[in-house]
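the two lines:
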Amino acid sequence: MDNLTQTLQAVPLNHYIWLSAIIFTIGVIGVLTRRNAIVIFMSVELMLNAVNLLLTAFSVHHNDPSGQVFVFFIMALAAAEVAVGLSIIVMVYRNTQSIDINVLNRLKW
Amino acid sequence: MGTSVFYFVATLSIIFSLMVIFSKNPIHSVLYLILTFFTFTVHYVLLNAQFLAVVNFIVYMGAIMVLFLFVLMLLNLNKENEPNKSSLVKILGVIAGGCLIVTLVGSLKAVSINTPLVLQNPNLGLVKNLGKELFGPFMLPFELSSILLLTAMVGAVLLTKKEEKANG
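prediction for all of em together
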């Protein structure tokens, strides 16, 4: 394990930031272009994970464990968010027989 | 070997996350999302954040993905009957995402942090180190997150419970 991490230290920090930016953008595109509410939730999970990876990379870069503690809190928050969100989706499906988010467009005003 | 493992895994995570948002069947989306999370676990191992790797494996790939699959199967949504958004909205969404990535990359070019990532302290991501941090300065947020999880559990049960007919 030590040997593996020793050889991988030459990756520039820039490339971690680019990877996280690309995956975050993919999540944004997913939220904007899909209509299935569950797929939209999964895109939100993708965005949260991109931020997690970036926090971990910066925590290693600055040699500060606080960043990894923040990632742990984000994971707890994501679990809570998914539980409540999916139960809301179940409620919506029970009332409208569909999880198309356009059914909910009256929530806009 | 060098840094090629990082680039290989990064390519895989980008490909799988693209498959998540472009596959028609929601079940396939969930399965590709599990693969994406697995590549993230590999990234954590490469950064020597072993605690986060294990937690990511258990919490995301275990708990959250089972929840997604469970809801999809429960609602019987494993078919490709999603009504399509108009292609105008799709193109506009992709253009908006493209603008976001161009802005991010452009601002990063301006800053240009090209220092390689050096792991100064190999014990940084181990359970012992993180536990000291978690139960030291982060004690209060840690306890508050347990209240958050309890609240979410009560809320989820309350929302999905079938309402009894209150007034006849």
